[in-house]
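Ticket #4471: complex job returned nothing on first submit. Input attached below:
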Amino acid sequence: MWSGFPLRPEQASTIAQGIDQLYFFLTAITLFFTFVIFTAIFYFAIRYRRKAKGEIPGQIEGSLPLEIFWSAVPLVLVVVIFVWSSSLFISNSRPPEAATEIFVIGKQWMWQLQHPDGAREINELHVPVGKPIKLTMTSEDVIHDFFIPAFRVKKDVVPGRYTSLWFEATKTGRFHLFCGQYCGVNHALMIGSVVVMEPEEYERWLSGSRKAETMAASGAQLYERFACITCHGAGKAPPFNDFYMSQVKLSDGSTVVANEEYIRESILYPSAKIHAGYDPIMPTFKGQISEEQLLQLIAFIKSLGPQERKSE
Amino acid sequence: MTATATENSTGVNYLNVQYGIRSWLLTTDHKRIALLYLASITFFFLIGGISAVLIRIHLIEPQGALLQPATYNKMFSMHGIVMIFFFLIPSIPATMGNFLIPMMVGARDLAFPRINLLSWYIYVVAGLFTVYALIAGGVDTGWTFYTPLSTTYANGQVMAAALGVFIAGFSSILTGLNFIVTIHKMRAPGLTWSRLPLFVWAMYATSVIQVLGTPVVAVAIVLVGLERMFQVGVFDPALGGDPILFQHLFWFYSHPAVYIMILPSMGVVSELVTCFSKKRIFGYHFIAYSSLAIAAISFLVWGHHMYVSGQSVYASLVFSALSFAVAIPSAIKVFNWTATLYKGSVSYDSPMIYALGFIGLFTMGGLTGMFLASLATDIHLHDTYFVIAHFHYIMVGGALMGYLGGLHFWWPKITGRLYPDAWARFAALVIFIGFNLTFFPQFVVGYLGMPRRYAVYPEEFQVLNIMSSAGASILGVGYVIPLIYLIWSMRYGPAAGPNPWGATGLEWQTPSPPPTENFEQLPVVTEDAYEYGSKEAHVV
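Support reply: We reran it on our side without changes. The output follows.
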């Protein structure tokens, strides 16, 4: 590749190469058919150019075999591409079991990132090389989008819900982090870097970074401060041991999985889905609790639960 | 087709039958209304074009050469809103569709002439609202109006612009309705569906989308308005709403809207390719039905705009498969147009240059659409300049080339005058080169990761952005040249005569410009479309 004029961004994650292979295959198909059509047009236009005014060429209505042929060729091609692309997409969308979870909050116009041990950063994400990382993301205002071109990953960051993406960096270095979804005046300034480090170096960075306590510990404090404990710790409301990702029976007879989304909803809109066997006595914490505190409470509940099974 | 109309002996035509501003503003003649539209959409094209110029100048430097970020955002929003809702969507339907559909089906006017005039007034009122929004502070939501940015966070005249788009929708619905009824009920004796010109087929498919799709975007806009004014909580999660719901409603219309823009151009190209090869179209029924197929599938692919929104993997798979399905009718059209040239008598008049340019650029635009229908690659490409390049190949390389080709083809019919064809061929070439230089680098810079709607960008993307801006200046020159010689030709061009291209089609069998009633006697059709000669060489 001509280094001064690259045709693709750096490949710095486990999925980048697979995406690039598909991309260059599609590029080859595009160039091939563009060449075929341009050549045919030029050849016909010159070979059959009008030689005399008023000449009337022989008339051709069409050809069924040709129509079938040039419908079948694109059909076969798009089926191949669809299968290739979709299987790649499905395998790329599943985070590995052992991924380290980092929380992301987007707001106009900055990224706030929280490591599980409590380290916090703004617009810069430090991660170890060769370790799968899962981001759980939400927004405080409009829709943002977390985009790391060198990793070929991108996901919208949506207010009012959690989205996630994962990657495993294969190269140390500093890579662009962009907000992909237009989010207002300073959209183009909502950028930063992902810094990929050797694992030891990452540990050093973690221990050196200013932090108060782990996310779960902050959550445990909130659990007391918001007086959750007075009901959830006393049998008046469901306890949280082994709660995360468990099947929760609701008062209307249906079942939900106690994932991040459900926990968040239950804190903000307690009456939306009532746990069977308990009275709907919980007040709403909407407006009193920040996105960051919600994530800390979720981290706390996770820490009481079984080891994370599947997140989606 | 049989010649049923003779040369107009009196010299009275739709242009000189009456003079004065009232005779234009109160006209119900579809041809005059087409010219009212032509003037209006040219005005909006200039506004959209000026914002594009400012965008490309600004992006010459990574830190932004010209505008504040807030102003830059208003510029690309205005570029998108004006170009899509006030130029591309009405472009071919409201001008050439209006002018030609009654003539092509052998009628004296559209089914509802007064509704036709009403739709122009609605369009103008809508346009004025948008111009108001532009002058009184601007809009910075992008043409997509995504919530909750548009409902809760954006400043500026979001409501005025949204109202403009909402009102313009009624114009679009009424025009579509008018065309559908006209094509069904007002065809000349003998003009069966299988004898209709392919332009009419394409306009029919377009009209169906306009009538079915536009109400949905109208609903979405009303909800944005209600949310913005009364905080009803449809889209804003802080009020219990769902921000993604807006994207479903918006793209349910706005993806089919892409086909509102491209299908008419496909119809135009079908007319041009046959006329300038002096040959029947290759695979008439395949081209006609592929327009309907595209219109039908277009309503089922909106989710491909939402692969990264958190949409479920299974929904994305279905939308991806359906999006790939669009490739087949599109490919059928391209192959049939190309095959029409085979053993033809090909001339290089300027409309043909545009048509051939269209086929090439649409091919590239269509093929690069596969990168975005494909899930794995779209995750990386979504919201980058690759998307910008792709849809400009379809919207400018496709829709606009078709519009200009059609304008050059029917200009002698509309005005009765010829323009200097050498200049026209030169302009077509300049546009083709300028277009590719502008938008091809954007494919590359998009894959490298440059996000769209960035007022400032990392330095490594500068070279490609400069290439793009250089191309845009060539493209700009390419648009100014036709403006000059077409206006010149209205006064100084030589008389065209009824059929300067030797084309088939009922519109060519009446004087240029046509009389108000189009035909002295209503025609009777006894032949297929495009009977350019004997059928001695039939393959099938």
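Residues 1-8, 536-540 of chain B have pLDDT under 50 and may be disordered. Closing as resolved unless it happens again.
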